[in-house]
Predict the structure.
Amino acid sequence: MMNGKEIAELNAETLGKLKALLEAPKKITVVSHANPDGDAIGSGLGWTRFLEKLGHEVMFVVPNYFPSFLNWMEGIEKVRIFKRDAEAVTPFIAASELVCCLDLNDVKRLEGLSDIIFHSPTPRVLIDHHLSPPDDYALSFSNTTASSTAYLVYKVIEGMGLETEVDRAVAESLLVGITTDTGNFAFGNLTPDLFRVVGSLVDQGVDLPRMNMAVYNNFSENRMRLMGYALDRKMETVPGCDAACIWLDQAELKRYKFEPGDTEGFVNLPLAIGRIGMSALFVETLDCIKVSLRSQGEIDVNLFARKHFNGGGHKNASGGKFFGPMDEALATFRAAVTTEFSA
Ligand code: 5GP
Ligand code: MN
């Protein structure tokens, strides 16, 4: 029975050590994963603002571009993109006394940032909810039953007894992470404790309907038409099993004037078909095919991503990469689901 208590149990000693570390003002770098999603940006911005309120000098860096549907968020203009700003941000990272890694399960997902962060003596703190994060951290808050990293960030703040530092902007950032990683409260691990935290965050004066409009109804016309095309022309259900996939190549993305984030959420669409329990999205990028995987119930796409697509993530939401042509990626997928998930 899930009573929400298991998530409340962050290690008190580790919380005490973090609190002690944060007592004196410091230069701090906050990082999150490549192709940042709502939880990566929401947890990162919320944590950054919280640290700034404590008097620290903070830089929030992500490896590459975040989706434009997050442009409305408070403080988003301060997020540094390593791919674009490497020269400007490297000295700050080098001079940092602490690095906080958020929503990060795999150092590879820091891309160009991974060397300067992980080949440095600067202590690292992890706040994350993925399966199998590396243990290369001075302090680690890893909880795989948490539905988002943003929720864990609140739990860490609260665990240090510093929740009075959570203002409206921190609350809104964390709520963006919570809503996007739970599929707007549709996926698993929706504990009573999560709703208690959401209540506290909303209580800071967040306008939830406005936030929902900004997150979910804020796309471009091109993205909407690309979605229609993908569903009508590029979705395949695999015969003999409950799996489906969608794939898009560079020419198609160009035709619809693709911008980063435009395919966000497409992987969930086939799951709306009653009998489909597992779905994949293949998007061709300049250096590989980006693979996204989602499932329902007991189907484990974390294992599937590790085994077939150089990736990982969570049991019901994972991702990875395929290095080869689209045809081969699709053939790998069809063969694997036929073997592993035949109805
Ligand atoms: P998405 O499909 O939204 O990109 O990612 C879904 C989940 O899988 C996220 O939790 C993400 O952290 C994880 N994930 C996505 N891509 C990769 C990858 O290349 N490697 C690993 N290890 N995890 C990934
Ligand atoms: Mn997350």
Observations:
- The pocket of manganese (II) ion (ligand 2) is lined by residues 39, 103, 129, 148-149, 181 (CB under 6 Å).
- The chain has two domains: 12-216, 221-340.
